Amino acid sequence: MARSAHAYVRGNTAQFYDWLRHLRRGDLPEGPPVWICGDCHVGNLGPLAHSDGRVEIQIRDLDQTVIGNPIHDLVRLGLSLASAARGSDLPGVTTARILEQIIEGYAGAMEPDQTAEEGDDIPEAMRVTVKTARRRSWHHLAKERIENIKPTIPLGKTFWPLATDERSEITRLFEKDHVRQLATMLRSRKDNATVDMLDAAYWKKGCSSLGKLRYCVLLGVGDKQLELCLMDLKEAVQAAAPADDSVAMPEDQAQRVVEGARHLSPHLGERMRAIQLFGRAIFIRELLPQDLKIELETLTREQAMNIARFLANVVGKAHARQMDEDTRSKWAKELSQARSGDLKAPSWLWSSVVDLLAIHEKAYLEHCRLYALNESH
């Protein structure tokens, strides 16, 4: 998180939720309650593979998904893109134009017949990522995750050994039909194929996994021609994202994540299951080579604007597919109001992102100071 202000924005979701909690009613528009990402920064969008092989850019991390105000996803995305623009040393005028493109792209997804998969409208700066995702194979995934293509997980800083009861419980888990089906649902695999657990380890991965259960499980699928399959088991905890109290959500936290994924990112949702392990809510998904996160390095003005419009459209489609036509139309009309003079970005979006940038910049510098002090001792 000390690497850059953009990395800090991505990693410090608590700062964003704290800001939301201190808003007065009416500071932000109240959109129709739908499943939202809850933590909609750029790194949580990217190429995802469908079980039939198709690849599409969708929301890829749903830990914070809730039924809530869709505006929260827009503001979080705006903050993330504005932070990336500042990291690319783009002028403030470009930030204003980026927010314009966010509204244009998002509102465009509310129009009839706009919820289909993306085509040639993928920005040039992102096409390389999509092409790379489509070309990736198990060998690429194995090299990144387990450092070899042998049916074992190398233990070390990232992967830790399991206790006997953990290994036994996970082995029994993949003997259950509804879990085993996760490994056989790809079109290249037979539904009745044999599934064996080859290895498993505790997975120390990222800030969101600290203090929670997270396992990496290596499976072998098939008899004569063994195909390897890597499963990610992650504990789901209470979402920090604010939810709409008027709409019921699953009480089980893993079911909440899976249900949100099915609504927001069908490619991912169909590849997930909610289970109980050691009395805790866990969601499972197969890691596919095509699943990548978007990494924004140095951007030009045009690239930043095109990416903002496209990603906002992706988020808009995820929201829009949950609304009927009349709701989408009314919501798009409301979004077009309250513009700042000649700018197409509504005043609430501009003021929200500016406030958040200031808050995060101050917190980021303080974070770096403390990090430097710790490093010196």
Description:
The longest helix has 30 residues, at 347-376. By secondary structure, the protein is α+β, with helices and mostly antiparallel strands. The protein has 13 helices and 10 strands. A 6-stranded antiparallel beta sheet has the order 5-6-7-8-10-9, with helices on both faces. It has helices at residues 5-11, 13-21, 70-87, 92-108, 124-135, 138-145, 164-173, 177-184, 253-264, 266-269, 301-320, 325-335, 347-376; strands spanning 34-36, 45-49, 55-59, 66-68, 159-160, 195-203, 214-221, 227-235, 272-277, 280-287. The chain has 2 domains: 5-134 and 294-376, no CATH class; 137-287, no CATH class.
Could you give the topology of this structure?
Blueprint: H1 5-11, H2 13-21, E1 34-36, E2 45-49, E3 55-59, E4 66-68, H3 70-87, H4 92-108, H5 124-135, H6 138-145, E5 159-160, H7 164-173, H8 177-184, E6 195-203, E7 214-221, E8 227-235, H9 253-264, H10 266-269, E9 272-277, E10 280-287, H11 301-320, H12 325-335, H13 347-376
Antiparallel strand pairs: 1-4, 2-3, 5-6, 6-7, 7-8, 8-10, 9-10
Helix pairs in contact: 1-3, 3-4, 3-11, 3-13, 4-11, 4-12
Largest sheet, order of strands side by side? 5-6-7-8-10-9
* SSE ordering: HHEEEEHHHHEHHEEEHHEEHHH
N/C terminus separation: 19 Å
What share of residues are in beta strands?
15-25%
Helix share bin: 40-55%
Number of domains: 2
Compute the gyration radius: what is it? 21 Å
- The count of strands amounts to 10
